[in-house]
Recover the amino acids of this structure.
């Protein structure tokens, strides 16, 4: 997740915060409808024990409501910025209580795994690009290792098709949620 924005900026040649400045903004009524439906969708998926129910529920509701033109337009930049600030705070808060000594001891292995993941991602991206012709940056964001919400947001910032990006990351989460219990049963 950390290295992907750097790669996106280097590849696209533009600043992420300059993307999508001229776009149709969603009106307040549509925004309220979208928020309420997203909460309902999240609650429903929570009852069904989905992973990341509010995130996936909101994305599904947003895709459906935008696809049917129930809630046309984009979320206002200010609200989007607030959401990104909250997201960054939530991610950063996961480090509460972790000592610097622990972080340093994990640095080499963390960097090695990150570089290996990026290399595999670049290799897969180039193969998929040669087969499909889909823009390289769209493929990279769709298959890059990282958090679902971060990659979908980053995809939107560089005009990658959000459905394409979200689909790949949701499928990854689905298969992880499906396969890990099976693998653990075989190991244990």
């Amino acid at each position: 997740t950390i290295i992907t924005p750097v790669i996106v900026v280097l590849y696209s040649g533009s600043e992420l915060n300059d993307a999508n400045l001229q776009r149709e903004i969603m009106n307040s009524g549509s925004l309220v409808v979208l928020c309420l439906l997203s909460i309902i969708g999240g609650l429903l998926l929570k009852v069904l024990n989905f992973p990341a129910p509010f995130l996936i529920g909101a994305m599904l509701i947003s895709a459906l409501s935008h696809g049917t033109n129930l809630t046309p337009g984009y979320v206002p930049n200010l609200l989007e910025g607030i959401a990104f600030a909250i997201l960054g705070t939530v991610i950063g808060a996961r480090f509460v209580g972790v000592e610097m000594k622990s972080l340093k001891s994990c640095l080499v292995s963390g960097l090695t795994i990150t570089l290996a993941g990026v290399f595999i991602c670049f290799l897969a991206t180039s193969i998929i690009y040669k087969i499909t012709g889909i823009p390289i940056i769209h493929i990279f964001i769709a298959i890059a290792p990282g958090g679902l919400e971060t990659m979908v947001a980053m995809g939107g910032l560089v005009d990658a098709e959000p459905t394409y990006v979200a689909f790949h990351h949701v499928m990854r989460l689905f298969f992880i949620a499906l396969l890990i219990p099976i693998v653990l049963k075989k190991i244990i």
Summary: The two ends are 31 Å apart (CA to CA). The mean pLDDT is 84. The chain is about 75% helix and 0% strand. The chain has one domain: 3-25+74-187.
